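Bumping with the actual sequence this time:
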Amino acid sequence: MREDVLKPEAVSGTELGNESGDEIVRRAAVLRDTFDRRFRDAAESTRAETVDVLAVAIGSGRVGVIVEQAAHIVARPTLVAIPDAEPGCRGVVGYRGRLVAVYDLDAASAAPEPKIVLVARRDPSVGFAASSVLGYHRAPRSAILAPSDATDPTRIGVLQLEEPLVVLSIDALVERLVRSEGGEP
């Protein structure tokens, strides 16, 4: 903390002990506001520099998703199949009074029987199937390296852990679904 904020002259130019009750209240308000601003700025700086990734199992593989792109995780969903559903659609689940269409998170490694559904924050009527949650990682954004396939917008990159973790974009997956249905993202 800056020392000059605590000095009386930094607030009022008066000497300690000579200020009125109003001046003490004003100085306390300045100190409180300074503390709050520095606390908030530090938290925002940390948030901007880090990313929270949820590692999930899908089939025999595993992927990561950005936590802030998922609105909810539905555990043990009752999945109802839809006859003649589009490819990749596993069915629907009821969640909080709404139907959520559930798709494979990664078509190449579909979860055999989904144990969780990640509901998209961008569109809560869309969710993605996974077998289980494997872990939670907070890492510097710089730790996610560019993907080997830069043409696929659903792949954000690779988080370097003991075993590299491919990180998918739920937002980009939702956008791809909407576009394939002819809608607006």
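The tokens above came from a reply further down the thread. Residues 49-180 form a domain with the OB fold (Dihydrolipoamide Acetyltransferase, E2P) fold (CATH 2.40.50.180).
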